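Quick one, tokens below. Sequence please?
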């Protein structure tokens, strides 16, 4: 081919190929050595020349090269074809071709995008194609790539289309990247994209995901001041947010506002309101809302929410009646419905009835999920039937369900209660291998088990045993052990673990020091307690509202002793003025 280029020159060779294509003598390219030796540069130039008279011939030739000459088009020639198709409004074909190369050729790379965009100086076409690229990556859950293309557009002055911005923001909101939602939104506004109802709905949805009521209300006000009127989705999202935050009256206010604005509530509206009532145990109001449903038909979610609500307020009879009602209306209970009833049966110790329900699920081809299995495992573990609990775990694995942290917690708790040390530790190691971090309660069960056996050496040696298994032992492990030993008044063992932790170069946090300081104070060792508090002050370790609440709840039975201890803490300035104000408000309200 080099000899052909040398013989004719690149420009002349391009003209020859264009002439052959325009005359329709394509098969001559198969017979000559020209067709089999076309370079990507020549093909790209031929496509550019042919595109001046429309896209029909260039698109046909593009496809012909692939099917007849097995030509692998370069990224540049494919980009040219996408531009040509877009210019002549063959949008669907252009999008399909763009999507074909989007993943294969790393189109989100800034350097690749720069080199491609520079070859075509039509800003409107570039904006169109790059907007499609943002949409494709966002819909493919390739959010990082979508953001890179968006950033390239912003930096190089290409205005992204409104739909592309909506899809990108929505993809970020779905995966709870709320901070990134606001960053992209601010940049979007700065490049001149004007928000519409869809953008605002996505933003309010992001607020719902993050639980930010104040921001959602601000957006609603901003919409209305800009004469963008909320629709059904807007109102439903606001109702859902209020119900999740326990703001029931605000949610009902939105419903009233909808109806006054001529937007009738749908079943999603009613389901959210009913959920809000059930969540707070206000079943009378939930049932009233259910009976008042108009213009919509109660669905599986409606009945399941009510059934779960009645189970939570210990009214299994009403829950079962509602299940019969939904079946009479042709609605089959789903796994979530069964899980609600199963949980209540297990809470009441009705394991036989729970198994009957499980058999019914099997007969109706309703597949159990992790919640189903964990509920049963927890029930068996509580009554010490670990054989049955482990059988359920095996069934989980057989059904391709993966045990989660709740599975492991229930099993570890069960074995610890039976003082089956090896089984409990084996599950702990399995839990860690599966990538789950044990919480305080998990370690506390192990500590309780060892203390019941008067085996303090096993507690002290637990961090090293975890290390020997190749597991990373961090402050959370030592914190849990020290905290539990202090609660059990095993101060010497707590001291030993504290010293081992420091010997390994780890420093205690506020929870560790507060636990030890209170344990000393309670046991009459005022000097040791004071030293701990002084060390906290020197290291500027403060007691947060969460720590205060946790300790106050854990040691609620200690009465005035705990009150005196908090007095010493406040004297040393270990609680900030802001937190102290919250504490005083809590004390007034309690």
């Amino acid at each position: 081919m080099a000899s052909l280029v040398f013989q004719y020159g690149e420009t002349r060779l391009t003209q020859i190929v264009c002439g052959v294509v325009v005359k329709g003598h394509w098969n001559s390219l198969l017979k000559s050595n020209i067709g089999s030796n076309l370079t990507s540069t020549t093909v790209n130039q031929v496509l550019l020349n042919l595109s001046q008279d429309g896209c029909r011939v260039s698109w046909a030739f593009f496809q012909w090269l692939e099917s007849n000459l097995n030509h692998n088009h370069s990224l540049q020639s494919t980009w040219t074809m996408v531009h040509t198709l877009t210019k002549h409004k063959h949008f669907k074909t252009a999008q399909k071709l763009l999507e074909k190369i989007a993943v294969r050729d790393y189109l989100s790379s800034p350097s690749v995008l720069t080199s491609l965009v520079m070859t075509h100086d039509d800003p409107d076409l570039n904006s169109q194609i790059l907007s499609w690229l943002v949409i494709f990556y966002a819909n493919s859950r390739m959010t990082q790539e979508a953001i890179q293309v968006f950033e390239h557009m912003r930096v190089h002055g290409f205005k992204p289309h409104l739909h592309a911005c909506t899809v990108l923001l929505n993809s970020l909101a779905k995966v709870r990247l709320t901070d990134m939602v606001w960053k992209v939104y601010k940049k979007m506004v700065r490049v001149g994209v004007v928000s519409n109802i869809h953008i605002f709905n996505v933003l309010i949805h992001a607020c719902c995901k993050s639980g930010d009521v104040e921001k959602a209300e601000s957006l609603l006000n901003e919409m209305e001041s800009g004469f963008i009127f909320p629709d059904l989705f807007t109102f439903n999202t606001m109702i859902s947010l209020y119900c999740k935050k326990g703001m029931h009256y605000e949610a009902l206010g939105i419903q009233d506002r909808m109806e006054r604005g001529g937007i009738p509530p749908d079943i999603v509206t009613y389901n959210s309101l009913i959920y809000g009532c059930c969540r707070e145990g206000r079943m009378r109001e939930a049932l009233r809302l259910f009976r008042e449903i108009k213009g919509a038909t109660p669905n599986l979610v409606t009945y399941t929410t009510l059934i779960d609500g009645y189970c939570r307020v210990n009214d299994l009879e009403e829950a079962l009646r509602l299940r019969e009602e939904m079946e009479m209306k042709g609605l089959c209970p789903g796994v979530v419905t069964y899980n609600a009833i199963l949980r209540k049966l297990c809470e009441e110790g009705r394991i036989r009835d729970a198994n009957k329900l499980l058999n019914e699920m099997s007969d109706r081809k309703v597949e159990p999920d992790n919640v189903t299995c964990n509920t049963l495992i927890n029930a068996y573990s509580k009554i010490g039937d670990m054989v049955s609990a482990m059988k359920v775990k095996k069934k989980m694995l057989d059904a391709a369900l993966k045990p989660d942290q709740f599975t492991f917690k229930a099993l570890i708790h069960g074995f610890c209660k039976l003082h089956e040390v090896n089984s409990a530790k084996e599950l702990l190691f399995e839990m860690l291998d599966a990538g789950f971090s044990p919480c305080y309660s998990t370690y506390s069960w192990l500590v309780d088990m060892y203390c019941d056996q008067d085996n303090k050496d096993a507690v002290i040696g637990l961090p090293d045993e975890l290390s020997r298994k190749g597991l990373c032992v961090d402050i959370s492990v030592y914190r849990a052990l020290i905290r539990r030993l202090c609660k059990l008044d095993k101060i010497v063992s707590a001291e030993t673990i504290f010293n081992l932790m420091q010997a390994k170069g780890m420093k205690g946090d506020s929870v560790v020091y507060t636990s030890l300081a209170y344990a000393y104070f309670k046991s009459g060792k005022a000097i040791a307690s004071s030293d701990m508090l002084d060390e906290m002050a020197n290291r500027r370790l403060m007691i947060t509202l969460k720590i205060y609440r946790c300790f106050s709840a854990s040691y609620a039975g200690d009465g005035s002793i705990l009150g005196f201890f908090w007095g010493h803490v406040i004297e040393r300035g270990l609680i900030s003025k802001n937190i102290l104000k919250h504490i005083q408000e809590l004390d007034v309200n309690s």
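The chain has a mean pLDDT of 91. The two ends are 89 Å apart (CA to CA).
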